[in-house]
Each structure stands twice: as structure tokens, then as C-alpha cells.
Amino acid sequence: MTPTIEEYVALLCVDNVQFNKIYVKEPKPMTFKKKLVRLTGMTDMWAEKQIKKKNKVSCVPWFSLRDLVQNHPDIMKRMDLFALAIYGLIVFPKILGHVEVAVVDFFKRLKKGINPVPAILAETFRSLSGCRRKGEGRFIGCTQLLNVWILSHF
Length: 154
Description:
With 154 residues, this protein is mainly α. The chain has one domain (5-13, 31-153). It is 59% helix and 12% strand. The chain has helices at residues 5-12, 32-40, 44-50, 62-71, 75-91, 101-111, 117-134, 143-153; strands at 18-22, 52-54, 57-61, 98-100, 114-115. α1 crosses α7 and α2 (32-40) crosses α3. The N and C termini lie close together (12 Å). It comes from Gossypium arboreum. The chain crosses the membrane at residues 81-104. Keywords: Membrane, Transmembrane, Transmembrane helix. This is DUF7745 domain-containing protein.
């Protein structure tokens, strides 16, 4: 009972998407530190201090991004970092209070007009499948989108 691709497109209201370009992970991705430096405009040393390992996954704590969102001199960077935080903390919340490397990659590609809908739908199925397989657990896909879909259908 998850939303279809078409329903996710309607719920996300993404305007600049090229539907023929679908998100897939790069075979030889740039390092997380480099991605973070490019996205934030900060130094290598700053990025190195912020990157943490949680459950064998590289991530950045939300409070580090929050400080940048509030104080970054470039307003466009502030907006980008705020949007990244929303994707990392709400749409793909695997590690509570942290934004992981996969979300940074996803966000970077989203800015280029890559279609995010199949990735979000796959994340929803992955999370629901994990809950079902364990017989317990919490849903860590995009809860808010699923809630909007449920409210619009029932």
C-alpha cells in the first residue's frame, strides 16, 4: 500500500526534473569530505572535523549543518544546506540526528535535475520490507510523504 511513482511525483511537486534521468549511485564517487567541502563552501579541515562514523556509515551531525544554515555568509548556500538537512533528517533518516553520505550524493544529483522519485519509492519499499522482515522496528523511509498519501486516499 505504498504510493506509486506518479503519486510521488505529484506529492513532491518537483519542477526541474528530467524524467529520463533517474538517480543511481556513481560507480567511482567523490569522497564524502570533498562533497561536503563543495556543498558547504567550508575548508577541508572543517569537513574533516564534522564527519563522524555511525553504524559504519559516514555522516555529519545536524547541529553542524544547523550552525551553517544560520550563519553562512552565502544565502544560496544557506538554502542548499537547509534543503539538504530536510532530505537527510526527514526524507532519508537512517541515522537519527545525522545526515549521511548517500543523502549528500542524492542532494547533489537532485540539484542537477535528476529524477528523485524512483529512489524515494525504493527507500520506502526497503524500509517497509525491513520492518516486515524483523516483525518490528520503525519505518525510516519518507514517513511524511507516506502520511500525505494515506490522508489523500482515505
